[in-house]
Write a structure and sequence with these properties.
4-stranded antiparallel β-sheet; 246 residues; single chain; 5 helices; alpha+beta; 5-stranded antiparallel β-sheet; Umud Fragment, subunit A; 2 domains
Length: 246
């Protein structure tokens, strides 16, 4: 028979029990989740209207993070027309947001923006009265401009609709050449003030792109902009007008 002293030695302490039965499993689960969302894949939610008519607030998008890491190591690259999640420069007024619940006590975070790549490194960009030109060619943005034209809200007069007055250019005129290692991103919302993007804060470096938003995964069904129910799952394709440009 075991003596009382031997039983006492075999019984785990409260702290050891807490570590083995709760803290360690939770820590391991959090570590695995962190590794997966950092290096493999994650999902992001759409908040706001800066990508109407193609993305709606409340949708959730699939982001394969491994593609981003491959691109950063020189394997492949992001393509013109892809939707990506980016962290805007700190000069953006919306780059830092209050943390939900803890915001009143000063807790903040840097949210991702969801924007479309329109300019690759070395591209020459120009916008005149809302018409986008890439490398001297007028881009037919059938994925967005006709929608805003139909509503009578296509922005043609603001500073963002004319490249000579893009705020980040500080009075520079003519074509804007995207620097090497940088990408020029824009929202699909082309109404006045509809999207804060590179026209305002300038191009973003590869290191600030979190990944390509490749697929809508939620909700499975949703009403379209005209009130009709439709299947909402599906991959996010590159618009025809942004394919194959020189």
């Amino acid at each position: 028979m075991l003596q009382n002293s031997e039983i006492a030695r075999e019984a785990p302490s409260f702290w050891r029990y807490l570590w083995l039965e709760w803290l360690r499993p939770v820590s391991e689960a959090v570590l695995v989740a962190l590794l997966v969302t950092t290096f493999l894949f994650t999902t992001v939610g759409v908040v706001g209207t800066s990508d109407l008519p193609n993305l709606k607030s409340g949708e959730r998008l699939w982001v394969p993070k491994y593609q981003t890491w491959l691109h950063r190591f020189g394997w492949g690259s992001f393509q013109r027309g892809e939707l990506v999640v980016v962290k805007p420069p700190l000069t953006s007024p919306y780059a830092v947001q209050p943390l939900p619940v803890l915001g009143p006590w000063g807790a903040t975070f840097r949210p991702f923006f969801i924007k479309r790549i329109v300019g690759l490194p070395g591209d020459r960009l120009r916008m005149v009265a809302g018409q986008l030109y890439i490398n001297g060619r007028a881009v037919q943005e059938s994925h967005t401009v006709p929608y805003w034209q139909k509503l009578g809200q296509w922005d043609q007069t603001s500073a963002l609709a004319n490249s000579d007055t893009w705020p980040f250019r500080h009075g520079q005129a003519g074509d804007f050449v995207v620097p090497q290692g940088m990408y020029f991103v824009m929202g699909d919302n082309r109404s006045p003030g509809g999207s804060e993007d590179s026209r305002d804060f300038g191009p973003v470096p590869l290191s600030q792109i979190g990944g390509q938003a490749s697929t809508v995964v939620w909700p499975p069904l949703q009403r379209d902009l005209y009130g009709h129910w439709q299947l909402n799952w599906g991959s996010l394709q590159i618009p025809p007008g942004l394919r194959g440009l020189p």
